[in-house]
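Handout, section 3.2

Students often ask what a structure token actually looks like in practice. Rather than define it abstractly, here is a full record for Integral membrane protein-like protein. The first block is the sequence as you would receive it.
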Amino acid sequence: MIRFATTVFLSAFLLFQIQPIIAKMILPWFGGASSVWSVCLVFFQAELLLGYLYVHLLHESLSPRRQNLLHAALLVLSLATLPVVANPTWAATLESPTWGVLVVLAAAVGMPYLLLSTTGPLMQAWYARSFATVMPYRLYALSNLASMLALLSYPVLVEPYFPVRDQALGWSAAYVVFVLVCLASTWLSWQRAAREEIRPTTTSDEPAPPPAWGECLLWVGLAMTASILLLAMTRQLTQDIAPVPFLWVLPLSIYLLSFILCFDAPRYYYRPGFLLALPLAFLAVDRVLTGSSLPVPILVALLALSLFVFCMVCHGELVRRRPAVRRLTLFYLMLSIGGALGGTFVGLLAPAIFNAYFELPIGLFLCAALVIVVLWRDLQSRWRWLLLAALLVYGYRLGDISVDYVKEYRRVLRNFYGQLRVIDVSDGDLGVKRKMVHGVIYHGEQFLSPALRRRPTAYFCELSGIGQTFLGLAGDQPLKIGVLGLGVGTLASYGRSGDEMRIYEINEQVLDLARSEFTYLADSAARIVSVLGDARLMLEREPTQNFDLLVMDAFSGDSVPTHLLTIEAMEGYFRHLKRDGVLAVNISNRYLDLRPVVAAAAHRLGRTALIIEARPDPGDRFCLYSVWVLVVTPEGLARLPEEMRSAERLVPRPGFSEWTDGFSNLLGILK
């Protein structure tokens, strides 16, 4: 028992520890988008499905000893793929970021992850064969406990203290230990297989009829719904806060906790209590979906608690319908099919077929519908019709929320990097104002009146830090300006005849909307050069640009891609700046306090950081509150006007470690 349990625990721990490690490693190569994690989960679920299919075919087709031999050989072969360090050259071979993520993951961790994914169900099947009087399902609970510990320990014990490459090397060493432990369990199973023929027949050996297809489909549906809700609610968190391991790990840990509780002891799923909590969870998510402005802790708590209720209901009903041990591998195969279908729907299909985030309302409706399906036989006729009526009302409500995603918008687009919407709103006597929205965050606006359309607005108005910088640097000589992140192109309004503005934008749809729906680029007197691609990667490939001003304004929702704020990124920016050039960083953010990040980098590089907060009057219709940091050398500081040189200095926070490509930790900067 101890040997099997140790193998299962170690495999599950490594299986889920590698997920945030490898995702964080490749995140900078794909623009730091929150979709990177969604696509990673699709890959992990697909690998899990292949692993469970392998176990099912192995269990059904080969004799016990042949199972042992084949699996031992694959374990040894998998050692040849170590260490699990991703190669960035794979990412550059494909234009599609989605397929790029999948190819990089397959090359880096494909074989080890596949072997780890087989361990749980395979050890349970071998354990059931070796100890026929003992039920193996508690090993599944142990597996999920190890998975949750791996996830929870990562942002607390691993990420804050070790560079990501060291994390990968340490994981590779632990995988070697796992292979040795698993080979020992395989040897034990080999020895016990010889006694199987003379072992007395037990209850577990008796034939168990295969489950009906309807039952299998219900297993798939429940698992798929939980998977859809996991990924959709994770995206809801990471889109507008930050695509970081902590916010990946929390929902996935809740998902695994529900597995632990349900499979360890079915009594933890108190059916009446969770069914009563289900409508409250629906209402909580409704509050989030309707765009209510909530503090970060409340937003995270509402989504986390709601996800826990949804997963407990889905997984609790799965456990209530689990089959006899003889059909264990089929049961796990159906669960993995459901998980893979849910992940594929959210991570691959939804961005391709939807122009808005419809997958979360779809997942919520499926959850409500499946609850009625599992309760149908236990309900009296009047309750059946009452629940069907409630489902229709809820479906109408979700449809209404979905329509709000696109209603009254001029353009609605979506791709790997998120959803973009353009809307026209009336601003009284100033006429119509056109806005671009990324997720739920405004990323620029423009008045359409010919008299006002060239005027900079929002975070880029003349009162803002970047507005003051443009006006302060304006002189007789033309300027060369770099801009990381296009938005609607507002900064182009500051361009003068003779100036060159080089704008880097990763999302082709943003460039399309800035050109077709807004006129800042067309109206600018400066020469505008658009560069499509991740700003940092593009700058690394280019010769020195000698910018007078480099503006870092690359947002995804309300979060800043972390790879654009590391020491290595800052060094790259200063390579492209003149000695007296100015680096301007937009750190306006509802959820993250980026001051210590920029302060630590400026201090490390021997630069001065000036912080400029714009607090417009309540009636100001051109400006929004913004926070900009100017990072300069002494020569750059002298180039600024006197009133800007006297701005508040940003000093490092004691004990705060600067971010590098191998190390960043967002827990310390959440507001």
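Discussion prompt for tutorial groups: The chain has 22 helices and twelve strands. How would you have guessed this from the sequence alone?
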